[in-house]
Amino acid sequence: MATGVYISKFLAIAIVVLTVSSIGGIITMIIVYENERIKTQPTAPPTTNSTTPYPAGPPPNMRLPGNLIPESYDIVLQPHLYIVMNNTTNQSLVFTGNSTVYFRCVENTKTIVLHSKEQNVTAVKVTDLDKEKIIKVDNTILYSNESNFLEIVLDSVLVKDGNYSLFTAFEGELLDDLAGFYMSSYKKGFIATSQMQPTDARKVFPCFDEPAMKATFRVSLIHRPGTTALANGKVIGTTLEVIDGETWEVTRFQTTKKMSTYLLAFTVSDFHSIGSTHERVDIKTYARPEAIKAGQAKYAASITGNILAFYESTFSTDAYFISTLDQIALPDFSAGAMENWGLVTYRETALLYEEGVSSTSNKEWIATVIAHELAHQWFGNLVTMKWWNDLWLNEGFATYISYMGVDHIEPTWNIKDLIVLNDIQTVFQVDSLASSHPLSSKEDDVQTSSDITQLFDSITYSKGAAVLRMLADYLDERVFLNGLRKYLQAFQYSNTVHKDLWEYLQEAVDEDSSHIKVAEVMDTWTKQMGYPVITINTTNGAVSQEHFLQNQTSDYDFEWHVPIRVMKEGEPIKIATLDKKVLMPDFLSEDGKWVLANINCMGYFRVNYDPVNWDRLLSQLEMNIHEIPIINRGQLIDDAFNLARAKHINVTLALRTTKYLWNDTEYIPWESALRNLDYFILMFDRSEVYGPMQAYLRKQVGGLYQHFENFTMFSTVPEQYNQINAISVACSNDIPECQEMARMLFDNWMTNKTSNRIHPNLKATIYCQAIAAGGEKEWEFAWGKFENATTATEKDKLRYALSCTRKIWLLNRYLEYTLNPDKIRKMDAVSTISYIARNVAGQAIAWNFVRANWNYIKGIMSLGNLIDGVTQRFSTDFELEELWQFLTDHDVEELHLAIRALEQATERTEANIKWVKENKQTVLEWFKNESRREQLN
After folding, report:
1. Closest Cα partner for 462 from 399, 406, 415, 547?
2. Which domains are assigned to the chain?
3. Is 890 a known ligand-binding residue?
4. Residue 376 counted as an annotated binding residue
5. Residues forming beta bridges with residue 112, ordered by sequence position
6. H/E element, 917
7. Distance (Å, whole) CA 103 – CA 614
8. Which of 192, 270, 444, 677 is the most exposed place for a label (fewest CB within 10 A)?
9. Helix, strand, or coil (residue 170)
10. Tens-place pLDDT, residues 4-44
11. Do residues 399 and 423 make contact, with C-beta atoms less than 8 angstroms apart?
12. C-beta neighbour count of 932 within 10 angstroms
């Protein structure tokens, strides 16, 4: 039903007349006014001053606005957990605390934007320090996206050049997620510890969590009586205080140097320590009490002071910058180690070594990691990259410098040569994919936490080290180190971009009267992804370069400035520089002599030759291997196999490079060959190619195995790496004497139980081969030893060996164990799954397991390494379809930390499929012919 208002007809007419009259009057007034205005032309009224607009809401990108600069923090943290539990207490996995950040305003604003993540902020107070008054807070907003911004809206303006403080109180959980402030445990107790890099300081307290936002930090830790608290600075006092009716210890630490938030560290534990010798710095190494008692920290303690002193003398920047250096071995730790200034944290396997139990390779790893983390005290801590896109300035330097540190303390190891295997050949594989990335990405391309996390890869670490090694060789190490000293001195306690490094290296070059243009050369190596293949025609001296890709021709017009060391048969080494295609006499063969380029693999590139020169080099290896440097024997093999995969040469030429190995016992050539033949194993161990290939490997490894056989049987180890290779290749390719030896040594251990005669250097490979040849009994024995092992390095060997079984049901059960942190620690889950996927019996079930448990796995694991590990063997159309289906089944948010790894896995799988189709028959015939040739001989 409609509703309305009723009026009379007379009243309606009267209203119309009045309205018309009024409108007419208004029109007349407007006309008169306008005529008068035109005659007098009055001045316009003054405009009122509008209110100055201040940006509201969060910044438009994922970066802090930069209008506030932190200068110092006061931080109080109280982890409530009990280190040792008893029957009268309930464990409390909570921490509370407060923080006051003192900051300077550089641009007027009414908001404070900083970072906070997964905390409950319970109080906020802002103070104008210049006026000594409280500023009212109108609102606080925590953004749930990847920015992790905490926006504090004020009712008045923070003015330029003003000084302010922000107090926050907060509480959070000590989870076992290995990030921020977290809980770790071992058989006798619990630990509160931290891992801030790259973006998890914000999980602990509200802060300006970007590397350029450096400040000083004054930390106090409130902890249970009888426990030990550590932080970045020296302890300046400990008191007992009653808080909420309970007695607590309060440990206060000296104010740190100016540093980035990601370098903060705290631990609370009942650990013991051992000291190191240094004339000025108080160095202590902490670990579980039983580990210290067993002497497992002695080796680390014995070398730390020596490495630190070596770096002090090498870099000459006011020595080490603080008076204390603590190291601690943590039972649960996501990285290998973390360089926190003054409190370096490690996995146990990276710090603890037990004589007679740990291997020489364990000792080498410990020395390398300590040298890496101490190098960071200069490269990363003292001088820090401005933003994460230049992360290689931290990690590439620490990786390269670590070889110098280890070589200083253990000169007999020849550790510098191993950079070719450990870093260069390894990163060549990733950097030959179209999905690679430059060392220095554009700043705008690195925004979110997941963008940052994905940069912690082999490009950043290994390629960074490789190009620095090349540059040091090109400039001369003396000039290079002089430039580094200038760089460190100029930027201490501040931040840099890669251009700053080139500037100070150039200064050193100019002082040496050299004509090298550092930035011009190095920008081609840092701003472009990938690397070149240098093609040399020794018949006319023509030399050219092109972007090397495994699976396709390059869509990029890349050119590099390439320094090349070259030698000719019987002549000394020369160095040349290549920019474009040229004729160079140094690369012209004379009198039928071979030409060899990239001596000792100092350059970050591959080399291809004309067929005649390849024949000459391979003939030289057959006649006298010692004419070719050891590193180049390995690099010829690695280059040939990868050039064949990219169709630059025939696959049979690559296979020919391994024929001479029956006469070589050196590690680098053998390891290069085995890594490349491992690709053939991955591609063909499910096909008819595998039988003839095994026959060839048995023939080639026979001499190497016999060379070491007596040493193995009597548990002496003259040269660990190639002895391990000899056993692994011989046993896995069914040489009866090797399999019998492995079974006998393992059976003896099973019989004696407490007495293990297997040499520590050989344990991993003997355990693996025995478990592979055995059944449930061997597996269960090894699992029991794993559960009860007290040395981390021994646990790691057993954890690997357990993946070697051929029993599918045992592998399935082992995969399930990775979901249970009480059986396989979270930090070890990825490598355990990857070990199982390397086993041909476990590859398919590992991939199915990852897909089935993705919702759990994606939250706790290093997804890039995991995807890489479980897809290495993919080489069929069906497996490619499964990869695509996996991408389709999950949205971007679910995959964000694995996107790059999945792209690389897809690209690699496509390349594998193509390669297998094109080469399978050729490879099969080659191995068959080699077997027939052996039978005829």
Report:
1. 399
2. 68-270 (2.60.40.1730), 288-526 (1.10.390.10), 794-937 (1.25.50.20)
3. no
4. yes
5. 152
6. helix 899-936
7. 65
8. 444
9. strand
10. 333 333 333 333 333 434 444 444 443 333 444 433 343 34
11. yes
12. 12
Note the pLDDT tens digit of each residue in 414-464: 999 999 999 999 999 999 998 899 999 999 999 999 899 989 999 999 999
Give the whole-angstrom CA distance, residue 34 versus residue 512: 83
Cβ contact 367:306 at 8 Å:
no
Q: Which residue in the list 339, 373, 671, 907 is annotated as catalytic?
A: 373
- Is 146 among the residues known to form the active site? no
pLDDT at 5: 33
User: What single string gives the DSSP state of each residue in 607-669?
Assistant: EEE-HHHHHHHHHHHHH-GGGS-HHHHHHHHHHHHHHHHTTSS-HHHHHHTTGGGGG---HHH
Helix then strand count (H, E) for the chain reads: 31, 29
Instruction: Look at residues 610, 620, 606, 565 and name the one whose alpha carbon lies nearest to residue 589.
Output: 610
CA–CA distance, 704 with 510 (Å, rounded to integer) = 50
- Coil, strand or helix: which one is 844? helix
Q: What share of the chain is helix, strand, coil (3-state, %, to 5)?
A: 50, 20, 30
Two tokens, residue 673? 């060959």
Q: Which residues, including other chains, have CB under 8 Å from residue 336's CB and lie 6 or more apart?
A: 346, 347, 350, 369
Residues 6+ apart with CB under 8 A from 857: 829, 850, 863, 866
Count of Cβ atoms closer than 10 Å to residue 5 Cβ: 4
Cα–Cα dist 533/139, whole Å: 59
Of 257, 298, 255, nearest in space to 277 by CA: 298
| Angle (CA) 594 598 604, round 5° | 150
385/786 Cα distance (integer angstroms): 41
- 648: annotated binding-site residue? no
pLDDT tens digit sequence for 888-903: 888 766 666 678 788 8
Do 195 and 178 meet the contact criterion of CB atoms below 8 Å apart?
yes
Which residues make Cβ contacts (< 8 Å) with residue 864, sequence separation at least 6?
A: 454, 457, 897, 898, 900, 901
Indicate the SS3 state at residue 383. strand
How big is the chain by its Cα radius of gyration, in Å? 33
Q: Which two tokens stand for residue 33?
A: 């006014």
Residues 6+ positions from 151 with CB-CB distance below 8 Å: 57, 58, 111, 112, 113, 140, 141, 142, 143
